[in-house]
Structure formats: C-alpha cells, structure tokens
Write a structure and sequence with these properties.
Blueprint (H helix, E strand, L loop, with lengths): L20 H7 L5 H45 L9 H5 L2 E7 L4 E3 L9 H6 L4 E3 L9 E3 L1 E8 L5 E11 L4 E9 L5 E8 L13 H5 L18 E3 L10 E3 L5 H14 L6 H8 L4
Parallel strand pairs: 9-10
Antiparallel strand pairs: 1-2, 1-5, 3-4, 5-6, 6-7, 7-8
The structure holds flavin mononucleotide.
C-alpha cells in the first residue's frame, strides 16, 4: 500500500497508517541511490568515530611507550643495557639537564623532565632558522636536553647528547655518548628513522655501531679541529677519526656524517664539550 498523502484527506473508509522515517527508509529499495549514499556515509561516520576514540584513548599509552623507548636508547648508548633490566630504574642513574647550546650552560628556565626538544625546535620563540643547514633540519632549538652519567664518587662518567639530521629518506634521531674527556666517543645509536632496511637502516647494525666506540671527535694535536668523519676513506687526521661508510648506503652515511659534524661543531655541542674537557661539569 502506498503511504497516505499528508495534504489530502484519506479516502472514506481507508485506515490511515503513518510510517516513521526509519520504516520508510528501510522500505526504500536497496538499489536506491540516496539510500546507498546514506548507508555509506553512516558507515564512514561510525568507522571514523571508532578510529578517533581508539586514537584518543591510546595516546597516553603511545606517549608512555615513546618515553620508555627513549630511555631504553639512552641506557643502551651509555652501555648500561642488559636483557631483563628494569629500564625505568636504570634510567634514574642519568641526570637530565636543559642546555643552552650557545653558551654550553645548563638553564633552570625549563624542567628537564618535561622539556620537549622536538617541540622546542618547532617553536619560533625557542628556535632559529638555519641558513647554512648541513644536517637538513630547517630550524635549530636554542635549548636541548642532555643527560649526564656520573661515577659513584660524583665525577663525570659520560655525557649523552641528542643528535638528529636528514639521511636519504628520513630524519634520523639518536644519541651520542661521549666520555668524560669530552672527546672520546663511547657510542652512537639512532632510535628513530625510516631508512631502507638492509641499506640505510644498517645504521642500527651492532657491527656498524661498534665502529664508533673509542673514536675521537677532535684532533688531540693541540689544535682541536673537528675531525670525526663518516666516509669510505679515512680523513687526513687518520683512522682514530674515521667511521667506515655503510656499503650500498652512501647517502644515509653522508647524512650521518653531516649531522654528527654539525652537532659536534661550535653551532652544536662544542661550547658544552669545551666545558666538559675543562672538567667544569
Ligand atoms: C629502493 C631503494 C632504497 C634505497 N635506500 C637507500 C637508503 O636507505 N640509504 C642509502 O644511502 N641509499 C639507499 N639506496 C641506494 C641509493 O640510491 C644509492 O645507490 C646508494 O646510496 C649508493 O651507495 P653506494 O655508493 O655505497 O653503492 C636505495 C636505493 C633503492 C633503489
């Protein structure tokens, strides 16, 4: 039976039934274009609500995991990682400080446990654009978080410094651990990048990472020139300053060379490392 016309009175003797919107919608033929559109839009809406709810509810967990991953990497680059250890507990041995790069001095302006290095690099009030930008990072924050590891007697054991820069496909984020002499590398480790597995991603290969151990940043001939180099051949300063480039991944290796030399330069951690070398930390 056709639905009664709302404007006309029902013919005499006919029972009027008023169908609800849902009933009329369900009764519409399945091949009706409007019905198909409404069903598709409804499905999209429900799916997007589920995805949004999942994203919002999982965000704290994701942030917690990212913080833990960073801690794992700091513990690893400092050589304190062992299977089964309580990372959060081991991480308590590290002393975080927010460092003003230009002066090499720590600042109390920010809480080192809350300071977000990446957000600072994007914040126009806390960073500056780079014209000469070998690490390909666009802007450089004026402040970064560094971590100190001390011996039991309170003397400095290592400093853990954040480094990052562009490889071939992605920005590589990592940490370099430098010994208390401010010049000997203990290790380098990246915790985030998107270089190709088997090629650029070999930066994570333990054998390649081991090459960094005991290499020197600056020449110890009194001149203190920045000499650390990632390349296929050793720099003039010699093998003590040479990390062999990854084979088949020259471009990622060049990116690592650029970022390390940038962050270890006067525009990066050199003012701070100078203070480490002077025994001021
Ligand atoms: C699919 C694909 C992915 C690649 N990924 C990387 C990479 O992550 N890092 C890199 O340096 N080169 C990568 N390359 C290789 C570069 O294009 C280039 O050939 C290489 O860096 C040269 O290194 P080599 O001089 O040691 O051979 C990739 C090439 C292809 C085809």
């Amino acid at each position: 039976m056709n639905p009664p016309d709302r404007d006309l009175p029902a013919p005499e003797g006919e029972v009027v039934t008023s169908k609800g919107f849902l009933r009329r919608f369900l009764d519409t033929p399945a091949d009706n274009t409007a019905k198909t559109m409404v069903v598709a839009l409804g499905l999209c809406f429900v799916a997007s609500m589920i995805v949004s709810a999942a994203a919002v509810s999982l965000r704290p967990l994701q942030e917690q995991n990212a913080a833990l991953d960073k801690q794992v990497n700091i513990v690893q680059v400092a050589g304190l990682y062992e299977d089964g250890i309580d990372v959060a507990e081991t991480f308590e041995a590290f002393e975080p400080h927010v460092l003003e790069l230009a002066t090499g001095e720590f600042t109390d302006q920010f809480d080192p446990y809350q300071f977000d290095d990446r957000a600072a690099a994007d914040d126009v009030t806390l960073s500056a654009p780079l014209d000469d930008d070998p690490a390909n990072i666009g802007r450089q924050a004026n402040y970064v978080t560094v971590y100190l590891l001390r011996n039991e007697d309170g003397s400095l054991d290592k400093v853990i410094l954040p480094v990052y820069g562009y490889g071939l496909w992605s920005t590589l984020y990592g940490f370099i651990a430098v010994e208390e002499d401010g010049n000997t590398i203990y290790g380098l480790q990246f915790y985030e990048h998107a270089e190709t597995p088997g090629l650029g991603a070999e930066v994570d290969n333990p054998r390649w990472k081991a090459l960094w151990n005991d290499k020197l940043l600056r020449t110890d001939d009194g001149k203190g020139e920045l000499a650390i180099t990632v390349a296929k051949t050793a720099p003039p300063a010699g093998e003590d300053y040479h990390i062999d480039a990854l084979s088949g991944a020259t471009l990622t290796s060049r990116g690592v060379d650029n970022l390390i030399r940038f962050w270890m330069s006067e525009r990066g951690f050199e003012p701070f490392l100078e203070r480490v070398r002077a025994g001021e930390i």
